[in-house]
Write a structure and sequence with these properties.
mainly alpha, 200 residues, elongated, 8 helices
């Protein structure tokens, strides 16, 4: 028997007045029965659906299912038979929760382990200045390995901050040539830096 809400105004309808939990922290008997029915009919299939969305992460899938069922309890109007099957609504809510969590994880910077933080904390300002000077020398050495044409286009585009059109005009070459030289100059510079142990 598919789960659906009783018709509005019936005696067995749970209280939907907005206060879903009493002052003592308990829910009404009708709401409890509603939650049990909702869980019994939809939790299993919903869990398997969410498990695929979370790439097999059981704990995350369980959290998503619980949050989805909580939202279903908070929004009983979504289960009106005229709006379609309840499971479709549940799957949509669960999918949105997974997508939102994935976006939130991507928005946060990746966490760094304690060892990396300790190394940074142990560095003195003088070490940082020395490291920066050594890296500057390595970059300058790598730039010297580039052809004169590549050095010139990088100088104009990156060090002098000119647009490709302006750099092309200064170098007296077509814009397409300036773009092409910039591309190949950066590629050669990246390789030269990697040879010196610097990851660009």
């Amino acid at each position: 028997m598919p789960w659906s809400l009783p018709k509005h105004g019936s005696a067995s309808e749970p209280d939907r007045s907005g206060k879903r939990v009493s002052d003592t922290g308990t829910i009404s008997r009708a709401d409890e029965e509603l939650l049990r029915t909702l869980y019994a009919e939809h939790a299993g299939p919903l869990f398997h659906f969410v498990l695929r969305l979370t790439s097999g992460d059981w704990q995350w899938a369980e959290d998503v299912v619980q949050e989805t069922l909580l939202r279903a309890w908070q929004h009983p109007a979504a289960f009106d038979p005229e709006r379609g099957p309840a499971r479709a609504w549940l799957c949509t809510v669960a999918r949105h929760l997974v997508v939102d969590a994935h976006r939130a994880r991507r928005a946060r910077p990746t966490e760094v382990g304690g060892e990396a933080l300790e190394r940074v904390a142990e560095r003195t300002p003088a070490e940082d200045e020395i490291e920066q000077a050594l890296q500057s020398w390595a970059v300058a050495d790598a730039i010297r390995t580039l052809s004169p044409e590549h050095r010139a286009v990088l100088l104009e585009a990156y060090y002098r901050g000119r647009t490709m059109v302006e750099a092309a005009k200064v170098l007296d070459i077509p814009v397409g040539t300036a773009k092409s030289r910039t591309y190949y100059a950066l590629k050669a510079l990246r390789l030269a830096l990697q040879e010196r142990g610097i990851e660009p």
